[in-house]
Amino acid sequence: MKMSIWSVEKWRISIIAFTTLVGGLLTGEWLISLAFSLFFYIVWMYHKLQQFYAWLANGTKQENAPDSDGIWDKISYQVLQTKNKSVNRKKRMNALLKRSQSILKGFPYAAIVLNKNNEIDWNNKKSGILLNVVKNDRGQLINNLVRSPKLHKLLAFSEDDDEVEIESPKNSSTQLLLKIIEIGPESKLLIARDITQRNKTLEIRKNFISNASHELRTPLTVISGYLEMIKEDESLPKALVGQIDAAYDQSERMRSIIEDLLTLSRLESTDDIQDISVDINIERVINHVCQDFNQDISIKIETNEIIQGVETEIVSLCTNLIQNAMFYTPKGTKIIVRWYEGESNNLCFEVQDFGKGIPEKHIAHLTERFYRVDKGRSKDQGGTGLGLAIVNQIAHRHNGVLNIDSQTGVGSTFTVCFPG
User: Fold this and answer.
1) Average pLDDT score, the chain
2) pTM, full prediction
3) N or C: which end of the chain has fewer CB within 10 A?
């Protein structure tokens, strides 16, 4: 096709040259002859441009394409090809959009598509039930419809795993969990799901654990006391010494578990510590905690900054992390405890051990209740499996974050960073 196109154009140029030659020979005015030939060629080209423009303006329908050959035919062909590709692409995009909207319409959660200005581009029916956002609200700022400082912060500083809980603007008794998902450079998806029932179930579980622990503490204290009296009785037959010692150790371990459960239940009961916060000198806390342990602990204080918080909880956090490092580090192995200023002016408490390390598959589960990497060893050493859960909850109450880094055969580093 390319050769035929240029052959036509060469034929037209040849006609212009021939016309100029004949005119020049007949009149002797070569420039005038050339000018007339070019004038008529330009007029013809202008006519073709008008035809082409009219065709473009009327929708480039194939049946209305201007009659032409050569390069004009090729241009018309390319325009039609581009249009057909565009139409097919639009059809595919529309089909994909309809399919996506169908999925989101059937979504069990509220789904709202926001543009870069946090204006509503699209929402499903569930968003009207949970967030009171209806179809007529499209184009409105989501902050004007759902007034919540937590949502405002989520929209401004959202990361992949960030979630916030708010009350439904339609029904204050309904608890919602909000999450932002980036779906493009200028769009994001706000998802809200009803977690009222989940929260009620968690509350029932917390109350059960708290009540059960309270009820068990007293009889266990009595049992432990009697077992201790029996242990110290010199008339106790030697055959029973081992059994009594084992029973006493298990009762003490059970009592430790109950105390930790009560501590965890109290920590989870509220996140508001503003009224009971005081200035805490972490250097003093670290020195106080470390003096109670018979272990080679290297203390590195790299900042004199203090934090605001509940001192008993911070002491518990430091104690649990250092004690955890001791449990999983051979005797005589050094433990490093640091207090330093990290990135973004965060203040970080870090405990590094050089034990056998933790396999990566376990790290994400370490803050779960009763989760143990080495169950047999933990039980032998008296661990309750609640220490890191308590640390994580204390960090959360103080707006901190617990990070765990570990390599098998190298050791583990537990870091809690508080906002500066």
Assistant:
1) 83
2) 0.59
3) N
